[in-house]
């Protein structure tokens, strides 16, 4: 009787540990900056992000001021 109870409790403990595995964060999101992912402070992430800000519709290596009619640049 006690052996079966022990095995049942062990099975429950293993299931709880397996289900509470660590979260997987997307690239560029630090667990230190966003512990409640996906509910993050976007301004804080933007300040500490290694990825440079780009204007919408422009690729990362194109300056919007230097090429306002992208993709038709001189």
UniProtKB/TrEMBL annotation:
Residues 1-22 form the signal peptide. It comes from the Eukaryota. Residues 58-74 form the Cuticle protein CPCFC domain. Keywords: Signal. It holds the Pfam family CPCFC. Transmembrane segments: none annotated. GO terms for molecular function: structural constituent of cuticle. This is Cuticle protein CPCFC domain-containing protein. It comes from Nezara viridula (Southern green stink bug). The lineage of its organism: Eukaryota, Metazoa, Ecdysozoa, Arthropoda, Hexapoda.
